[in-house]
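Hello forum,

I keep getting stuck at the same step: I have a sequence, I want structure tokens, and every attempt I make locally crashes halfway through. Rather than fight my setup again tonight, could one of you with a working pipeline run this one for me? It's a single chain of 382 residues.
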Amino acid sequence: MENFQKEKVTPAQKPGLFRRLVALAVAAALALGLAACDVSGVAPGGSADVIPNPAASASTVDSVNAPFEMHFIDVGQALSVLIECDGQFMLYDGGNVDDGSLVVSYLQNQGVEGLEYVFCSHAHEDHVGGLAAALAYFPANHVYAPVTEASTKCFQDFVKYTQQQGLQVEVPAVGTTWQLGGATITQLGPVAQYSDTNDTSIVLRIDYGATSFLLTGDMEADAERDLVNSGANLKVDVLQVGHHGSSTSTSYVFLNAVLPEMGIISCGVNNKYGHPHEETLSILRDAGVDVYRTDLLGTITIGSDGQNYTVGTEHYATDAELNPTAPAASSTTQQAYIGNVNSKKFHLPTCPNLPAEKNQILFSSYDEAVAAGYTPCSTCIQ
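Reply #2:
Ran it on my machine without issues. Output:
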């Protein structure tokens, strides 16, 4: 087991703790005609109360009601985060294309009329897809991405609706800071040029009073290592766990630099990639991180008063469900494998040579992969 040097805040150091609340349920998607890619129709000292509430239900409509709120919207196997501070809003990713109307509806229900900033973490559809719908509906002041063009129609639609507002997609530099009400947002990454689109993810640190948060998109181990080596201030209270909990992210060296109290994983129920991977859940357990997952809890809302933070969830799940210590797929015969649809090779989820997600196919066993005509990777499978 890796040794993590982590100072936990004791209950005696937690003045004025909030009770855990139930977050808003995701509202029904609007019939906006925004289907598919084409939407032309249109802290130090921070602490949290994590008392479970088994009576919580999706029909309960309570708000965290704090001056700073971060909403991890349940968009399935994707990511979309709404941040509000002192009446100002920003959006980090918009989920898949099909999530566009859901994201718009959720923002409307939160009282959003305009967005100060819109961030596309990177140019994959499960992050940029729903942003076209958001930009078609809400005026924005600035729109950011790590690149200004990409070959996918989804990204092109994102650019299109940015330009229809009279704006251009901007590529921000590391070290840039923004104000969102009383919160300070700082770009920490990417700190280098990468050929892997996941590693180009815009990494944002958000500080509100003594509470702090880190958004990482799909950043993977290479970019994590470079970010740690850059000397950036990575220690935060709440981490958005990279790449939906994939074993290609959240390396020991990175997690030891961040040392969060809480990790949020945005992933889909029974998704084909097996996210979150047991390797990721294991190191989060080793580090004593409280894990919250959208596949089990639905939309997750964090509120901060600048000293303490609260967590609200749409559904309820036990700690054993959120981060099981005895995963069902623990035996060799149940080991999952990831195939490359182009090379016809299959890999362990921990392999450094995994293909891009769009080229992946999941096999539940070694025999299944072989029967499908795939050959084992010589790097990770001996």
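DSSP finds ten helices and 20 strands in the chain. If your local run keeps crashing, start a new thread with the error log.
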